[in-house]
Amino acid sequence: MSTDSPASGAGSATTPIVKLTDVNKHYGQLHVLQNINLEVSKGEVVVVLGPSGSGKSTLCRAINRLETIDSGSIEIDGQVLPEEGKMLAKLRADVGMVFQSFNLFAHKSILENVTLGPIKVKNMKKAEANKLALSLLERVGVANQKDKLPAQLSGGQQQRVAIARALAMRPKVMLFDEPTSALDPEMINEVLDTMVGLAKEGMTMIVVTHEMGFARKAADRVIFMADGQIVEQAAPEQFFTNPQSVRAKDFLGKLITH
């Protein structure tokens, strides 16, 4: 498990994979991200929790520049994320993203969905892309579905394909924005199990989720957001057993009583 300040330490002062400095974002009058400062180290699993409207998803999407920011900076592996252009596309390829909805191409096979990015963006040869895709589909447990169309798969299977598709770009960090919220309850665990497996393999992950079990099991650090701010951050056991802020205590209290 990582320490509370993962980028610190004289012998291991490595560049964080993700670094946000004084990041602000408004939607009109609504200040959805307020002076966000955050560092995530290589191999760290950070779970972002908080009530609806706290800014969690906006934070996640800003890291991939799917949401623009008004001020501040976001760095991926030491490079500032530009606002647009080829450098943005290049850096964005280092940041895999898995959404609530699966966003698979409906008329392409599962295999084609996974190979499209490596072929089009990374100019990988088709045979190499197919080999990579098959190994990733095997890793997430759906290799036997490779020739089917997305609609022929369950929601849980489609989300695992979406994870394989993101991994096919060989990202430095994976972002998950409520990856199980659109799934039926019986399908949630198969996706979470895949994510736990990735965490154990050392994938750097930032996960916005309501799944407390996953946070306890796989997170190195829990970040609690409310009203566009990072209110509290701690190791999972500390956060769940002894939250420091009134907002976090209230949030956890409501979870326990429902």
Fold blueprint:
Layout: E1 18-27, E2 30-40, E3 45-49, H1 56-63, E4 71-76, E5 79-80, H2 86-92, E6 95-98, H3 110-120, H4 126-139, H5 155-167, E7 173-177, H6 185-200, E8 205-208, H7 212-218, E9 221-226, E10 229-234, H8 236-241, H9 246-257
Parallel strand pairs: 3-8, 3-9, 6-7, 7-8
Antiparallel strand pairs: 1-2, 1-4, 4-5, 9-10
Span between termini: 30 Å
Helical percentage = 25-40%
Q: How large is the share of residues in beta strands?
A: 15-25%
The total count of strands amounts to 10
InterPro entries: AAA+_ATPase (IPR003593), ABC_ATPase_HisP-typ (IPR030679), ABC_transporter-like_ATP-bd (IPR003439), ABC_transporter-like_CS (IPR017871), MetN_ABC_transporter-like (IPR050086), P-loop_NTPase (IPR027417)
Protein name: Glutamate transport system ATP-binding protein
Family: Belongs to the ABC transporter superfamily.
Domain ABC transporter: 18-252
What would your notes on this structure say?
The protein has 258 residues and is α/β, with parallel strands linked by helices. It has helices spanning 56-63, 86-92, 110-120, 126-139, 155-167, 185-200, 212-218, 236-241, 246-257, and strands at 18-27, 30-40, 45-49, 71-76, 79-80, 95-98, 173-177, 205-208, 221-226, 229-234. The model is unreliable at 1-12 (pLDDT under 50).
